[in-house]
Amino acid sequence: MENITHTIQAVPLNHYILLSTIIFAIGVTGVLIRRNAIVIFMSVELMLNAVNLLLTAFSAYKGDASGQVFVFFIMALAAAEVAVGLAIIVMIYRNTHSTDINVLNRLKW
Length: 109
Known about the structure:
The protein is an all-alpha fold. It has four helices and no strands. Its main location: membrane.
């Protein structure tokens, strides 16, 4: 465990912040621009992974494991989100034969 902490601390914290910001921005862009439900769910996962990277980096630099505990809970939340999200996507595809979210307007009364 000590080698991992020294390796993480060898890279400046600013690099982790910049990488997490870029990954998070890619995820936000994917959610806002794309209309495919699968791509939107993948973009949400990218945003969660950016937060996980940042929490892990801060946790390692501070020497406190509380950030890594939060990462565990975020990963559990992401797994539940994927399970529910894929079930929703399958039901949308069965009803509309498309994963385009603009087609969902046909499901309104």
